[in-house]
Amino acid sequence: MGKGLAVAFSTAVAFGAGMVAGMLMAPESGEENRKKVASQLRAYTDRLEKQLNEVEENLSKVEKQVVETSNELRTRVREAAARAKEQIVSDGPEPWEMERADVAQDLPKMPKV
Predict the structure, then answer these.
(1) What is the domain partition of the chain in residue ranges?
(2) pLDDT per position as a tens digit, 9-57
(3) Coil/strand/helix, residue 103
(4) pLDDT (tens digit, 9 = 90+) per residue, 99-113?
(5) CB neighbours (10 Å) of residue 8?
(6) Whether 36 contacts 28, CB under 8 Å
């Protein structure tokens, strides 16, 4: 977003500088110049407003996608946890029990804390 703001600021500065230069070199009267400048400013403001509306719409779409994805992910995690819990409970405690000899054999391989 920082780069977009920098581009918008640079565009506004360039636009303003161009308008000032045009007014200084214009052969029209002051009133005609003011009308022309006002018209150009309205056109520029309308374009900028349109671009900001597009950015807002895109951000809304991204927000909606993030919410949908997070909801889907939450559902998948809950389902996976339920399946894992069911599998652990259905297997019983036997697969989780270790013999002392197994523990003694694996103990030297464990990292020291």
Answers:
(1) 2-93
(2) 788 788 877 777 776 776 667 788 788 888 888 998 999 899 999 999 9
(3) helix
(4) 667 777 777 777 776
(5) 13
(6) yes
